[in-house]
Structure formats: C-alpha cells, structure tokens
C-alpha cells in the first residue's frame, strides 16, 4: 500500500524535470508574424520560407503542365500504322 502512495510523487517528478527549462519562443514569433510590413504570412518567416514557397509553386506548376500534356496526348486519336 505504501508503494501506491508514492506513485503520484514519482509521476510528478518525471514530468517536472528541472534539469532543462525551455524558453517560450511564441511571443517572438507572434511579433514577427503580426508585423505590418506588406508581406504575406507565408513569406514572413525569412529566406527559408521564400525558398520553400518558390519550390512548392515550381513543383505545382510543373506538375500541372505535365498533367495537361499527358491529358492532351491521351485525347489525340491513335495513328494506324
């Protein structure tokens, strides 16, 4: 019975480690993303966000063109040899 009384104490120690405290970065991110600088929100994160956005748009447009090409190719009648 004595061991069952120790379970809540041990559980609280396991989840409240004082060895490493994480810093809350949310206010800094809010400051960056709520700033009124005329940029869309998906580009406000910096260079990495711009590169990721452009790569996504390039792959999207490339895939759309590739799909349209094969739709056009499939819609053409077959030539009899």
From TrEMBL:
Superkingdom of the organism of origin: Eukaryota
UniProt cross-references to Pfam families, sorted A to Z: COX7a
Membrane topology: Single-pass membrane protein
Molecular functions per Gene Ontology: oxidoreductase activity
The protein's name: Cytochrome c oxidase subunit 7A1, mitochondrial
Pathway recorded for this protein: Energy metabolism; oxidative phosphorylation
InterPro entries: COX7a, Cyt_c_oxidase_su7a_sf, Cytc_oxidase_su7a_met
Signal peptide: none
Species this chain originates from: Zoarces viviparus (Viviparous eelpout)
Subcellular location: Mitochondrion inner membrane
Keywords for this protein: Membrane, Mitochondrion, Mitochondrion inner membrane, Oxidoreductase, Transit peptide, Transmembrane, Transmembrane helix
GO cellular component, one term: respiratory chain complex IV
Entry-linked Gene3D superfamilies: Cytochrome c oxidase, subunit VIIa
Residue ranges of the TM segments: 51-72
Lineage of producing organism: Eukaryota, Metazoa, Chordata, Craniata, Vertebrata
Biological processes annotated in GO: mitochondrial electron transport, cytochrome c to oxygen; mitochondrial respirasome assembly; regulation of oxidative phosphorylation
Annotated family: Belongs to the cytochrome c oxidase VIIa family.
